[in-house]
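4.2 Preliminary Data

To establish feasibility before requesting continued support, the project team ran the inverse folding procedure on a target of 128 residues. The structure was first converted into the token representation described in Section 3, and no sequence information of any kind was made available to the design step. The complete token record follows.
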């Protein structure tokens, strides 16, 4: 897991107290904090996000995490960071212009479902 993802996740964990102020505590050292975070993620069965440029892989990763984290705050932070407006627009255009072309019916259906779900998710998050 890269530092950016860990920071986003740590911020999510802090926010998930539903706005209830937590008593101040001495922050652990960075290596200690990271090891605890990684341990907890492994316990949940979460595979590490590699932060690559493949937007669809990033989307599949976050959908997998949705099974563990239903709190929209973390999802919104993630999509804001990894799916800038230009990517959103590209995916919306790709969805609107999608044709079967040389794709098999199965490939076309899979791509349609992938893009339609992704565009729906981005639209919902833009409204928050």
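Position-by-position output of the design step:
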């Amino acid at each position: 897991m890269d530092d950016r993802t860990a920071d986003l996740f740590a911020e999510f964990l802090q926010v998930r107290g539903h706005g209830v102020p937590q008593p101040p505590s001495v922050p652990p050292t960075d290596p200690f904090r990271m090891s605890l975070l990684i341990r907890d993620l492994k316990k949940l069965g979460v595979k590490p996000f590699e932060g690559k440029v493949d937007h669809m892989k990033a989307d599949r990763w976050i959908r997998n995490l949705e099974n563990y984290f239903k709190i929209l705050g973390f999802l919104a932070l993630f999509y804001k960071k990894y799916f800038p407006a230009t990517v959103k627009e590209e995916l919306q255009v790709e969805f609107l212009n999608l044709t079967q072309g040389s794709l098999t019916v199965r490939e076309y259906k899979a791509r349609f479902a992938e893009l339609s779900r992704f565009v729906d998710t981005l639209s919902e998050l833009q409204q928050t």
